[in-house]
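Q: What would this chain look like folded?
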Amino acid sequence: MSVAAPEATKQRRQNYLTNEYTLVGLGFALVAVVFTWPTLLHPASTIPQDVFDPLLITWEIAWGGHALLTQPGALWQSNTLFPEHDSFAFTDSLLGYSPLGFFGHGPAAAVVHYNIAYVLAFYLASIGGYALVRRLGAAWPAAVLAGLAVGYAPWRLGQAGHLHVLSTGGIALALAALAKGHGWSLSRGYRPDEVRPGWAAAGWALACWQITIGFGVGLPFGYVLGGVCVAAAIGWLVTGRPELSRKLLIADGLGALAFLVVTALMARPYLRVVDAHPYARRSEADLELFSPPLRGFFTAPETSWLWGDASAHSRETLPFAPEMTMLPGLFVMALALVGVFYSAWSVRQRLVLALATVVSIILAMGTRFFGGELGYLLIYRHLPGWDAIRTPGRLVVWTSLLLALLAAGAITAFGDRLSLRTRGSRETARSARRWERFVVAAALVPAFFVGVEGLNTTPHPDVPREPQSFKGIDGPALVLPSDARDQWVMLWSTDGFPKIVNGGSGFTPHSQDEIRQAATGFPSAQSVQYFRDLGIKSVLVVRDGPLSARGTPYENALTADVTGLGILRSDRGDGILFELR
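A: My prediction, written as structure tokens:
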């Protein structure tokens, strides 16, 4: 072996370690851990935000992994909300995170998986914002700003309990890969010599992954992706139909087909659910409840470290603050406004971006913009699938992305202007390098302020522990009390996945209301027979702990006499188990 070979290997390793995307990837990973701290401090026992929706999602990730490994054909027939069918499709499934559920088992492992996914969601969103803006032609300090603006916008803090809303990284990453695959950027236009079919295929694969997270964010992305394809086709026609790579056409054809197939397969169970439960459809009255006014886009969630207290009065005036605090970030908004007038992007490009930003805000306002008749209701009434989305404000995802693009154009132009001093200068090389370092530092200052807006005070409560009496329970089982804390029972059911009646979702099925009502009289002869007819084998009434039945409509069952009912009552320490024989 020649002496040059080890040197070449060493050089390649050094180049990899100092590569821009290696440094950016590691840097944003560190930012994700710090900005979501203390999520990874006690990953098996605490959870961000609260112990309700996050625990529902924790169960979803665990169930997805369990079902794909053991019964993929019955994926949508989950172990919860018995005796309903397709219960895994009662809300966004976050199926894309299911591979995390392949490892470990039980509630503690499920909580770890959720916390990993939570940090990963912020990481992917920020790295996606960086990759997209960098690919479109921005300087790397501007792309850092965009990554922070997209990944840590203040509005995201208000959605800390909704992992399906936070999981937007696939959108920006897919668009970045597609732009690179097609050799296109804002700064240089279409470059046939830069076409990379493999990257185009990767972009479609990322788009497929994003749609498996759920339709709340994925459906608008699908329509935007379709609009991008139409715009690209029009651009190809008006520019004289330049010759396209055959491999690129194959990658696009197969990628688009895969996206449509995945979307259709994901949609089937949801369509079955709506057919079986028509009341699950989102009405225009629902839109009225969740549509934020314009001031909501200048109001921060209470967990925003920088703006939370300052926005307190504004939040009090909002009809439903949790879904109406849509602040993308005051610093990025100010920089985006500068970017409309001073930018590395062309005048036409920045005008298009500014118009798209305004449109995104109008749509995100739902019925608050002239009743929605000139905006959201048009697409709600006419585009397939849109009536499944009840929260227009979440379209702020696109507002954040567009504002980041405008701001990045301003920062890139600012950096270019400062860098002119070193071009053709007679100064020494050392002086030129110092000036370049100053330029980079100056360009990163706005990114610092944008990042500060992402600091949070998100609580991390302890996860309720599984009652000893629940372990080894024979399903189908009903756990009492049954109420908003059913998400806790869902988490506990990851210990073996017994079938349970309990469950939370995007809507409450009539069967669950009826069972809860009947359970208030348990163990009466009538309720026992009703449960038997449904196929329920066990009823567990929790006596001690945070889910205690004491003080609830189900308390009577703790001391009720079961003589003559043909059921077996056993004391299991922190709960009473009734077996319906």
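The CA atoms of residues 153 and 328 lie 5 Å apart.
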